[in-house]
Each structure stands twice: as C-alpha cells, then as structure tokens.
Amino acid sequence: MDTIKFTDIGPATSPPATQNRKQRSNHSSAPPAADCQSPPSFFEKGNRSRWLIPLLPLALSAYYYREISPFQLLYEHYLLFYLFFFACCALTTYFALNAKRNALRHIFHDTYDNPCYLHAVAKAYNHPLNTLLVPAICTATAFTEMVCRIFSEQPAGLQATITLATALFFLVIFRANNYKRVYSAYHGIEPPYHPQNLTTAKRKTLQKAGSAGLSITWIYDNLVAAGMLDETNGT
User: Fold this and answer.
1) Distance separating alpha carbons of residues 165 and 210, to the nearest angstrom
2) Would you give the DSSP letter of residue 63?
C-alpha cells in the first residue's frame, strides 16, 4: 500500500498558516498513486449483470411476438414493448447511478482537497459510457420509430412526444445526480435552497433513498427557486 511521505516544512517557529500551506503544497504535488485510481466501473465484476435488464423486453418480444426487432412490431405491440423497455432502461440507470453514489460515499474525505482526491471524486461520476449508453439507446429507439413513421407518411405525434419525454427524463436524472451534488449530500453541505417545509431530516431520508430521492430534492429545490412553490407552506 502506498503511503504519504511528509517532508520537512521548516522550523517549528514558522507560523501555523505557513506550515499548513507548505504541507498542503507538498501533499498536492506528489499524491500517492493508489488515491488516483478510479472507483469501480459499471462494467467491472459485480456490475455487468445489470446490462441484462434492458435485454428483457427483447427476449419477451421474441417469445410473444416472434420478432426481436421492435420496429417490426405492430403499432400497439411496439407501444407496449417501448413502455417496458423504457422502464428497464430507467431501472438500469438507477442502479448505475446508485453504484456511483456508493463509490463516491466511500472515497476518503481528504481535507487538503488535493488534485488526486478531486480527480478520484470526479472519476466516480466520469464514466459516461457506463451510465449514458443505456439512456442513449433508449432515446434512440424512440427517435428511430418516429423517423420511420415520418418516412412512411404515418402520424408520428405520439412517437415525437415519447422521444422528447424520454430525453427529458434522463436529462433530469443526470442533472440531479451530478457528482458535485452527490458529494454535497454525503458530506452534509446544504444545497442552494433549503425551505423550512423540507427539513434536514426529510432531506437525509430522501438522500438515503438513492438517486431517485436525490432527484426529488433537486426538482423540489428548483421549483422553489423558480417561485412555483412557496418556501413556507409548500403551495
């Protein structure tokens, strides 16, 4: 295991602020290699099984409709397929974000905030392929169905609505669960808006609920900031 080696920072008569600044500089300039390693990836052992969840709709489609491609399904069959597919993609994304929340929670809180530590915190949420691939495929499926109906000169209003709703849903989820907000939640830093009707205890309960709870607090805070909710009575 790598250890941090401290060097002489001057005589004991140096002011404490000067000693702390020199020590922090030394700590930041040569951090141990072990601290810079990324938290567990979504693709690593123990996480790969979650990729099977979005495959369930394809398996059921092949079993019930004898067709794997969703674009070959009848109109009503496709809608049922996509509803189930979207639910599976949302569940997979939830598990992925929760895995990163747990990885971030276990990162040691280094009071020096050295570059290596910040790098580790960022990398806990900086595996875009791990969490963006499933939502991208889900949104692309709805978009492709919309384009197919447009080219076949069929009404595509519902498909356009589904595509937009899917994209907005995942956008909100990722915006609400960015690593800076998760870090603030785990380390007790108050979010920008803290109305009295959503107490600290309620916030902590929601944060323990995982990515869904953090998303709820983010949406609530932004509604308050936009003036759509009143801070005192929640109306």
Assistant:
1) 22
2) H
